[in-house]
TrEMBL record:
One of its GO terms (molecular function) is RNA-directed DNA polymerase activity. It comes from Gossypium australe. This is Reverse transcriptase. It comes from the Eukaryota. Keywords: Nucleotidyltransferase, RNA-directed DNA polymerase, Transferase.
Length: 157
């Protein structure tokens, strides 16, 4: 049985091509050593400036606003009554006992405020971080692509 291996057989170093295995190894080690070293890489090939989305000051100011009791109550009553919280108690408990526990609920308010910013920070392909999107969606798309490629194998399209 014949096996195919992925192998780098040549690299362009400056203006010439290198085919020597030992020199190729040294160049690869040197490249990754410099890539992951603690040296300043702000002028390097992989500069990150401009790759991350910017959040406008207005949005940041909105996130820093004081949370009102009405917002806390709206968040608590927007949860389905049988959904358990991190403490294992259902939301129905908090909704029925609102007068006692209402002022202490803050987690959902923070989450609701961050929902306003998530679309600026999370790409479309990062489905597991966005409400009503599921990681299985990407798996299904990948499966469909691979399936269509296998069906069209040998055909020109």
């Amino acid at each position: 049985m014949r096996r195919k291996f992925n192998k780098i057989s040549a690299l362009k170093l400056g203006d010439h091509w290198c085919y020597d295995d030992d020199e190729l190894r040294r160049e690869v080690v040197c490249f990754f050593f410099s890539l992951y070293s603690l040296n300043d890489q702000s002028n390097g090939v992989f500069a990150l400036h401009g790759y991350f989305p910017r959040i406008e000051l207005v949005v940041l100011d909105n996130l820093a606003m004081e949370v009102t009791n009405e917002e806390i109550q709206d968040a608590m009553f927007s949860i389905g009554p049988l959904n358990p919280g991190p403490d294992g108690l259902h939301a129905l408990f908090y909704q029925n006992q609102w007068e006692t526990v209402g002022p202490d609920i803050i987690t959902n308010i923070i989450a609701n405020q961050f929902k306003l910013v998530f679309h600026l920070l999370i790409a479309q392909n990062q489905v597991s971080f966005v409400a009503r999107r599921h990681i299985i969606d990407n798996i299904i798309v990948a499966h469909e692509i691979i399936h269509s490629m296998l069906i069209k194998k040998g055909k020109k399209s």
